[in-house]
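Hello again, I could really use a second opinion on something today. I've been staring at a protein lately and its backbone has me curious. Can you walk me through what the tokens say about the fold? Take your time with it, there's no hurry, and the full record follows here:
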Amino acid sequence: MVTVGQQPDSLVPVTAETVAELARADEHSAHNYDPLPVVIASGSGAWVRAIDGVDYLDVLAGYSALNFGHAHPELVATAREQIGRLTLTSRAFQHDRYAAFCADVARLCGKDAVLPMNTGAEAVETALKLSRKWGYDVKGVPDGRAEIITCAGNFHGRTIGIVGFSTDPDARGGFGPFPPGFPSVEYGSLDALAAAITENTVAVLVEPIQGEAGVLVPPDGYLAGVRRLCDEHRILLVADEIQSGLGRTGDTFACEHEDVVPDIYILGKALGGGILPVSAVVADRHVMDVIHPGEHGSTFGGNPLACVVGSAVVRLLETGEYQRRSRELGAYLHELLGQLPPDRVAEVRGRGLWAGVELAPGQPSARVICERLLARRVLAKDAHEGTIRIAPPLVISRDDLTWAVERLADALAG
């Protein structure tokens, strides 16, 4: 039983060394982040070490980019070997790691073809372009009229195109005008989605679980209902599995929990093994082949280093070990979190090793609780004002999960 009021091992103060390094970074960097006052120097597995020698348990895992932990030995060895051979050719030339990467990712997704990119936002933009092109070339939507339905509360990236259909005022404010063609509907509502479909709708873009919104899990049957509506209206289902995919929720993809197969997968974050940005759009040929040479590309997308690391990630996932760990340890994590006092925690949401801990009314902000966790040597992140995100590496131990939730219980006590 997790109880509030346990004494932590010891509270860790912010050292002068940390303050000085943060000030040095602040002097010459853009102020687009407000990080917690810690400076990390190294990491292994689920743990990191700061410049002042203090060890912290990482329960954020780079928003799922570190599903396999910090410095996974197989991934690091793969990257090191490739760095000494070949790292970049541009897509003007083929390299000897490209074919294997595309085949590996296609096999993992059960699809025909892969379009590699770098960041998650690039992959989302790629999927949007692919969907529009399919709508014009295959479905026959009049030029310039294609619509892609999005969901309120979404987070798909930070580009002008993407923040244009965000409902977060912090993401949108000051960056308009935005491209048209992206109507937004209530997340989890099939009625709202059905009402928004028109003859010009070419795709529905959805996160199987909304991470940035606070780890929101849609109602049972929602994803299957979206699939059904897409089939009925000849619309592409585009699943943004950048955070939710690659083992995070207990299956390879979060869509699998409802036996749903999207027309397009968007992958990122964990695909790079926590080593470098790797993303991909994956679809069958009847969708992917609407893109022709010169219509889309990336100098770094599908580079040799990215390809070997991505293939190594696929090999790890094909063992099933990490999905199993997420299922089993996720059940344990949610059991522990469910024991937190209801006067401190209003709700715990999530699936697998992914949880959103929504604070009860009257509690301090999630940022304050994360600062208290930092003092207790646990690294977590707030989602907006009232939710703490917990998404540890899938290599975390059961004992470390227990320890983290005990620290959380203590942080909630004040």
Residues 1-7 have pLDDT under 50 and may be disordered. The two ends are 19 Å apart (CA to CA).
